[in-house]
């Protein structure tokens, strides 16, 4: 199997990380690869918020602003070496919005695969608090911006085993 196919198939969602920090420069380099995602008219409809080191407290505080101090998410944030919020700049036209959402999703997958190829594990996390004004405001997320998800990242402590996929053939309608 070639390297691209192998990375796609062998990447796993990593939830337990070693404590070591991932260098910020490396994360930015990985993002500079990820932005080669296909995106219609090269709108590049994304931006990123990266929390690392003491900066993670800012994210934990935003979660607590919405959920209160007693919640499992903000407590866990300080255990994750780096967390990135990926933001879609929303277009009010439905067809453009759909294209741009697809493009940002492709970017996230690119990022996770590029990270995996450099031994960095990632976890794409979505939670209801990402929509909450009390969470968004302290982070400067504007109206008309959608948080696609949080990407947790770090060096894997545990790599979970793969969950089987349904063979594509079972979902294929072939016209030939
Ligand atoms: C948009 C999106 C949101 C996700 N949110 C969560 C989440 O909140 N919690 C979680 O455990 N996994 C989440 N995942 C990860 C999936 O659970 C994971 O990709 C799936 O179990 C397959 O595992 P693999 O990535 O190791 O192949 C999310 C994945 C995507 C694409």
UniProtKB/TrEMBL annotation:
Co-factor requirement: FMN
Co-factor note (free text): Binds 1 FMN per subunit.
Binding, FMN: 11-13, 40, 124-126
SUPFAM superfamilies: FMN-dependent nitroreductase-like
Gene Ontology molecular function: oxidoreductase activity
Domain Nitroreductase: 8-155
Enzyme Commission number(s): 1.-.-.-
Pfam families found in the cross-reference section: Nitroreductase
Top EC group: oxidoreductase
Keywords in alphabetical order: Flavoprotein, FMN, NAD, NADP, Oxidoreductase
InterPro entries from the UniProt entry: NAD(P)H_nitroreductase (IPR052530), Nitroreductase (IPR029479), Nitroreductase-like (IPR000415), YdjA-like (IPR026021)
Family to which this protein belongs: Belongs to the nitroreductase family.
Protein name: Putative NAD(P)H nitroreductase
Source organism of this protein record: Paenibacillus xylanilyticus
């Amino acid at each position: 199997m070639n390297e691209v196919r192998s990375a796609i198939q062998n990447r796993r969602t990593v939830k337990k990380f070693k404590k070591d920090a991932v260098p910020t420069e490396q994360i930015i380099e990985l993002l500079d690869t990820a932005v080669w995602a296909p995106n219609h008219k090269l709108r590049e409809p994304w931006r990123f918020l990266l929390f690392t080191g003491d900066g993670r407290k800012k994210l934990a505080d935003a979660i607590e602003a919405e959920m209160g101090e007693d919640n499992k998410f903000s407590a866990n944030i300080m255990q994750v070496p780096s967390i990135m919020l990926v933001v879609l700049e929303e277009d009010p036209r439905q067809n453009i919005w759909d294209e741009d959402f697809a493009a940002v999703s492709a970017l996230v997958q690119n990022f996770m695969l590029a990270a995996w190829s450099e031994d960095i594990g990632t976890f794409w996390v979505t939670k209801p608090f990402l929509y909450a004004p009390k969470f968004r405001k302290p982070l400067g997320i504007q109206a008309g911006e959608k948080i696609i998800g949080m990407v947790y990242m770090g060096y894997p402590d545990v790599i979970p085993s793969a969950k089987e996929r349904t063979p594509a053939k079972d979902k294929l309608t072939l016209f030939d």
